[in-house]
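Quick entry between incubations.
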Amino acid sequence: MGPVGSGRPPTTVTKPLSNASAAAIPAAGAGRASEIVFDAVTKRYPRRAEPAVSSLSLTVPAGEICVLVGPSGAGKTTAMRMVNRLIDITEGDIRIDGTSVRSLDATRLRRRIGYVIQQVGLFPHMTVALNIGTVPRLLGWDRPHIRARAQELVELVGLDPAQDLDRYPAELSGGQRQRVGLARAMAADPPLMLMDEPFGALDPITRARLQDEFLRLHHAIRKTVIFVTHDIDEAIKMGDRIAILREGGVLAQYAAPDEVLTSPADDFVGRFVGTDRGLKRLSLMALADLELEPAEADAPDRPSALLSTPLRDALAMMLSHGGRPLTVVGDDRRPVGVVSLETMARALSSPVGAGRRAPAA
Amino acid sequence: MIVAAASPVIPDFGGGGGCARANRTFCWDWFSAHWGDTFQPALLQHLALTAVAVAVGFVIATSCALVAHRRGWFEGPFVTVSGILYTIPSLALFQLLVPITGLSVLTAEIALVSYTLLIIFRNVLTGLREVPEETREAARGMGLTANQMLVRVELPLALPAVVAGVRIATVTVISLATVAAFVIDRGLGAPIFAALQSSFKTEFIAAGALAVALALVADGLLVLAARALTPWAAAGTS
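Done. Structure below.
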């Protein structure tokens, strides 16, 4: 996340994101990510007929964000909490890099997995630095190392080390708290992170900003992430893959966001992603993904948009300008082409999009 | 009734001049003349009685609260027993204890400790239980063991409630310890009893005022200690 979006003037940006994140990864285990396999995982609670999770099987490749999404009662959080054994598995198994979580000591397993929850759960009696240092302390790192790591991470998540390290959670805003929660989860450089509606309690603006920053951060650190949400839009935005669960913890579809939108597996998924799924697909693509019409020389009063603009925003611009085409410009502001409503409609009707996510603005 | 073991203090009328002989409301001269031989030792004894009672009560009540925190069934029996102890009138409790433990400091301390148990137990347990669920959840999810969670998270967060309990217990014991003069000639209760028998006003007013002052100072020190121990509690409210 780092420099962008923290609201600080550019002069305080000390280093580009890639350097910041590289520095944030300690020598022990640089950039590890784990593959997670759910193998016919079932969770049954006593005195309840329906299982909470029913024979869930899916594989999350190392370094990807897998979003578990579904209505309440679909067992998303239950499925996630079985990974770090906050909930015991009734049947089946979950393997991290081939090792069954059942074969590991629960507390040691949890120290290797980053954990972020909606209510953040910062320790109110500890400063930001101490909160972030929780797992490193449990792992027995020495003090200067822990402090340095906290400083690094605070910067990485877009807070100000000089000012914020020694603050208490009560002195932070909701967005700042969740940033600290994220930093705390990443402190020991875990190869896997579990995030349970991490941005659910934030206002829409803060949420969108944290989503964008997290995606950018993830691009740099490439941890495996299991992300739970009930919000299909967030799932589409955040996920490399989306696992849509229905009530009773049954997996309805597991696919890339674009595939979920273009070919929902069944009526349930279709209803869940909504009748506006065509529009939703637009946010997965940017103008750069389209085959543009050639730029015309003289169209001075035509609205223009950057190549990196998501199609959804570009469509909105066109509609608010009476449906007129847009001049698409590169980063150097030179026109590279023209996009019209027809171009966009063609792109939507093509079976699968260009397969790349629109870069977060 | 059991009367203090020592003989009543006969006011030294000579020490305070006319004021004391006339038994006016408060004779400063008499008080300062007897500070060294009566009031200062009584104050220190009172302080010692209180400190021992609160310390012992704290250890017992906190240990039991920790047990009840892990094993909920323990709360009921402890509250019942300490509740009964709490409601027995102090004089009756002394009467009950004297045949067993005699006219001793032990008798006084047993009675005083028994009044601290319920208060401290309740506060410690409430403090532990009021730790937010998300804080516990995050702690578990990060791999803290149950003991690490207790020591690093639950007890520190329970501290304000714990100190609140200790404050009430301390003030209660300072007040009740004057009654301990029924069994032992110690503490600020001793000059009060002596003065009651001779109806000498200065002596019991002075001893009573010292007990009140002691309670206020002890309470104030505990408030300051709590602030020093929980800097986070003030954060965000300023």
